[in-house]
Fold each of these.
Amino acid sequence: MIVLSLPGSEPLGIGNKLAEELGVREFKVYSKTFPDGETYVRITDVEKLSRDEVLIIQTFYPDQNTRIMEFLLTLDALREVGINEVKAIIPYLAYTRQDKIFLKGEPISIRAILNIFYDLGVREIYTIDVHSPKILEYFKGRLHNIIPSELFAKRLRDMVELDKTLIVAPDEGAKERARLLSKALDTEYVVIKKYRDRVTGEIRHELPKDLYVRGRHVVIVDDIISTGGTLASIARFVRSLGAKEVVAVASHGLFVGNALVKLRNSGISRIILIKTVPPISNPLLEYLDPTKLFVEVIQSRR
Ligand code: R5P
């Protein structure tokens, strides 16, 4: 096996660590953008590449479209040298939130993307915390969805008083994440109802009437933080009800626009993330390294 690191994975520092842990060589892909916006890639040292099993590493942010394009072009470049089937580590798999048709005329974006990957030779994907389990059904190969609850739990045990902790899922989709985390920590969890206007994008939350948070540590768990709106609104609400501390845990921190300001102002004291996209240096944020999680799953498949 060889590891082939694409530019998106470089800021995660995952390629060399992974190659070391697996005891294999790391190769790299060079990429640039032409003046007109088109993407170019080239596998460096391609002549040294044997027909070994190839494990590509690329994350899909920022920006999603360029990173996906680099990935597709690399798959074609591999075909040129006779490597037709590969495995891929994609720490952040973009486009997962369009996993069904919400309004007539829409695509199922993640299904389209996974079909293209398969057609270009991707047979196994290792990723962290996809938006919904439904996505696994769309891939014709094997998709390993790693849920990092144990990693989050390990960190939270040092941070909060567990007997005073409540895990909060911001919507029905996050229920399983909350259940797993509360199981790992042996704490309670609640699920909040979320209503989204599919045309305007406006979101409304409905919190359980008997939500008892006074003096407690509230841990909100989600998959993606994008604009920060979801977390900020729940954090403000539980703070207003007397929560002692609000911590958020999420797998993928995108932090679009002024998300960090919004989150800081909402009263969240800490956000724990998995390093699936390039980390941002900010006192509010803390990143956990997913390399070991990938190594464990890959080794169990070798
Ligand atoms: C939505 O269903 C996701 O699970 C997240 O809750 C959502 O992407 C968070 O987005 P934002 O940070 O923009 O509220």
Amino acid sequence: MHVDMDAFFAAVEERENPELKGKPVVVGSDPKEGKGRGVVSTCNYEARKHGVRSAMPVSTAYKKCPECVFLPVNYELYAEVSQRIMQILKEHADKLEQVSIDEAYLDVSSQKTYEKAKELAQKIKDEIRQKEQLTCSVGIGPNKLVAKIASDYDKPDGLTVVRPEKVLVFLTPLDVGVLRGVGPKTKIVLNKLGVKTVGDARTLSKKELVSLFGVFGESIYEQARGKATAEIVEECAPKSFGRQVTFAQDTSDKALILETMDGLVKDVWKQLRAEKFLFRTVTVKTRYEDFSTHTKSKTFIEPTDSFEAFRTLAVRLLKEFLKDERKIRLVGISAHNLKLKKY
Ligand code: TTP
Ligand code: MG
């Protein structure tokens, strides 16, 4: 399954400012009445009716649609909304691969049937609409290539299912530019050979394609037949955050050791907060002057992001180590059992 949010930045802006409803909205740099530099990040479907597009110079967008509402990019806001959407997707997927701020592949193989996968897609769409007041378009297919083309097939608010036996029929009439890597330059070469659609591309032999495009020709050959082998790769969430320091000299100065630990706790906690993680387990590590290394851990019942809870527990665990008579060479702290914060 491939999920792609509709007119993402513009849709978030519309949601935040209801007075924009029904108006053409462009998100990007300031057009300064046609004299502005920079480009359009995206625009809503109303603005697209006027010919405005992503990556177009804002000056051009202004000429095409001076009555458009032009807004600056509020990237932080979109990133925050994106995180919440990805969390929703994650909860419904066997595996999730986020590929951009508004787009992800979901492995939903455990649904077993296309019918079930479609029901799941509808559920996801409903949940995103209800929780975030945003729409997305979803494609379902036997591989990433087909799923991605399918999500783009019926935008906005689409849901397109392409069963394996329908892949060829589905692809045949589509512009050859839907294939991965087939950009304007490749299209010019193909168009000269009379190849406009994916179906047309199938009339070229593998040999012909390779002589034209090298190894990429082979990819076009396979893609035109709806074949793709790329797996859904789940990004690795960090398992823990931690820091440690080795003292300049082995020490039994309790105040120094506690103060050092305090600094480490603050650093780790700031990192957790910045990346919006809750933690359940805190581990303190010490190495004594004889190089023997020990850890002590404690786990909260519920995930938390409380600085006080983190520090109190760290100090408690560290004090256990301070009962020993040996001098301390190194101290460290880490947080485990992480969970992304929900809103
Ligand atoms: P897209 O998914 O390509 O576009 P979109 O979500 O705005 O519209 P669509 O309904 O066609 O999917 O990109 C997602 C966001 O990425 C988009 O809202 C803004 C940003 N973006 C840019 O900043 N510059 C660009 O050139 C493109 C294509 C997107
Ligand atoms: Mg999008």
